[in-house]
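Bug #77: duplicate submission created two jobs. Keeping one. Sequence:
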Amino acid sequence: MNISSIVVKTAPKYIDEVVQSLKDCEVCDYHMHDGQGRIIITIEGENVAQELEKLRVIEAIPHVVTADMQMSYSEDELDSHMEVIANGDAVPKMLNDDNIDLAAIKYNGDLKTKDDLVTFTKKFDATKR
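Kept job's structure:
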């Protein structure tokens, strides 16, 4: 199952018409809008292809200028990450050690820039302190 948030943009004068069209189209869930023509919706699909089909329906609504996916959640992707965490030692051992002095923890950079979290944590655990 995939869930994605979408920001739909329209001219402010068409906001009520587009919001109603989105509510009526049955491919998305309407959440909110502002006076500047921005509308927040979510779509769900069994896979990316199904989500893209729904996105095309939204893009075809009269007066929709853009409809862009902002955030996406994929259950399959989450499951694969959870499997790595469950089957590996992805959390550095020192973070589970109640006896360690917090001042002794050395910051080694932003985890978002690490290519392989499992390899990184193994190297981190092997680092002499």
